[in-house]
Amino acid sequence: MLKIFRGICHAVRALHNHKLPSVYKTEYANGNAPPNGHIINNDIRSQVAPTQPQAEEDIVPFAHRDIKPGQSFDIILCSNILLSDDMQTPVLMDFGSLVRARIKVGNRSNALMQQEIAAEKSTISYRAPELFDVKTNIDLDEKVDIWSLGCTLYAMAYGKSPFENSINEQGGSIALAVLNNQFKFPNTKDDIYSQDFRNLINFLLAVDPKDRPNIHQVIERVDLLIEQLSGNNGTNI
Q: What are the residue boundaries of the Protein kinase domain, all occurrences included (predicted)?
């Protein structure tokens, strides 16, 4: 499971470290995503390939903003994540929510617009807290996807989003749960996963995006846990 999750992280890294071809740099400098198909085709080819260091000014981060498993999670088939023919390599799908990741929110009108976009495009139980109540004079960035990865890993292990139990008819309680980071792991005696695994999820689910890791730090942490598991013959994840 962790190896598949690592593959998902590699796909996200391709988005967060996308090198926009020079022909698009001026045309899409206003924050719009390239036409459907361009970035998707380029990134699918490189989703799980190692990313070479790039000059920071050449990197144009994109955020998926709707990374999630299916309503009834299945390790073989997820809502926005499919497995390739080898049944080991995940492919990130459904780019309808894709945006330029780094967005300056300068006034209340901008903030409300970003909230509306998130409400329409980002599944509530996998949506980052900063998208529920967008503040003014802030920068939104690609760390919204890190939160979604934390929710996705929890769902891969336990079958649902950590905040799914908080849903009511209006959806208000889940927003409050997310903003206050109110979720629980199963009782330790009933949990087949280790404390290190739970710590990884907590690492991803930092409410303040400044405290949240970037995708490189996530992959490094996942690699370390996989290495530890290999030494334990894969027992007690």
A: 1-226
Quick: pLDDT tens for 117-147: 999 999 999 999 999 999 999 999 999 999 9
3-state secondary structure of 187: coil
- Report the C-alpha gap between 158 and 80 in whole angstroms: 18
CA distance 69 to 9: 14
Amino acid identity of 49? A
Q: Does domain 2-231 have CATH number 1.10.510.10?
A: yes
What are the residue numbers of the active site? 66
pLDDT tens readout for residues 75-124: 434 478 877 777 778 888 888 899 999 999 999 999 999 999 999 999 99
Alpha-carbon distance of 5 to 221, in angstroms, equals: 12
**What tokens were used for 222?**
């996942």
Residues 6+ positions from 135 with CB-CB distance below 8 Å: 105, 111
How far from each other are the two terminal CA atoms of the chain, in whole angstroms? Answer: 10
Using DSSP's 3-state secondary structure scheme, residue 222 falls into helix
pTM recorded for the entire structure: 0.79
Helix (H) or strand (E) holding 6: helix 2-16
Q: Copy the structure tokens of residue 160.
A: 């649902």
Contacts of 111 (CB under 8 A, 6+ apart): 105, 134, 135, 136
Q: Which two tokens stand for residue 67?
A: 């990374």
Q: Which two tokens stand for residue 112?
A: 């409300």
Alpha carbon distance 58, 40 (integer Å): 18
